[in-house]
Amino acid sequence: MKFCIYFKKTEPEVSFSSEEHIFPAGIGGIQKLPMEYVSHNCNNGFSGMELSFMRNSLIALPRQFVGPGKRGNLNPMNATQGPISLMKGLASPNSIELGYLSLGIPYSISQIKIDINGTLQFISDRSFGDANRQTSEFIKNLGKYNGRYTLFEDKRLSQNELILGLHNGKWYVALSNKDLETKIDNYVQKLIEQNPFDNFTPNYNSEQTRVHQTLQFDDSYFRVCAKIIFNYLAFVKGQQFVLQECFDPLRDWIVNGGENNFAKLTGEATTFSNIPFPDQAHKLFITQVRKTLFGQISFYGDAFETVVKLCDNIEGPFNIEGFICDWQNRQEFSFVDFLNATIEY
Known about the structure:
By secondary structure, this protein is of the alpha+beta class. The protein has helices at 40-56, 60-66, 131-142, 184-194, 219-237, 239-242, 248-256, 335-342, and strands at residues 85-88, 96-102, 105-108, 110-115, 120-123, 150-153, 161-167, 170-175, 210-211, 263-267, 282-289, 292-299, 303-311, 321-326, 331-334. The two termini are 41 Å apart.
């Protein structure tokens, strides 16, 4: 039956044209719910929340170091790129540059470091090919500069310098002196007219890089954790089970946010810690304590264990349920199936 387990609506109020993953595809999830369980409208509404979960929460760091890439892709060429940030030591021990992490490796983006006293430095990464070609393309793209950029203010930069970087069609500016921001357009025009990097010789260095990133630890992390567990509960118990009124408070919080009376971090995972789960696997378990139903979830091994109260007045006994996402090997198991496959009796 087509009936959204989150909106509690059916056609024609909502449509059903997409499938909801249990674990998000962006962290390697494979198994989906039947199409009639989650409306397309609801799926679209969750997209921004999941994007924040994967890019800005605690999960962002292991994704940058071990993966997977977009939509769970395991090809290193499609590995997740961390957000553009200011990095120290890419070119020299004290240099500050714009770059990102991918599978734990730092990369510089194409950028020009401008000192208002008259010196210029073009910075690029040899991983992206010939430095002269990168420089030429950067100067060419300056002609398309539109004045829109992401700004980084950092006191480690000199009051006399600013950095202008380009990556995937987006501009980035770094400076410590806000007065320089009004002069960016003038510098861009001068660079276009003078093209000061003709016939330059690139100089590469290898240094220990330090990266400073700001992660958000907000409502979206906990709501996505709850959604993953609720998805699996629907998968194993069925649509009618999760449509019970006892789940309405959780359902409303997942969809609309508000005060978090449901989820909290607990530290390192301890559930079934003696079982040899796959390395870096995501895991969830659903258990009953008296009439309260709880979910536990952890990511990338035993990291970031979070407990979610699903409802506090469940009727009848509930046998433990569990789900393992072995994203590195593109496999997923129910807890029982995993035990049967791995434990010798």
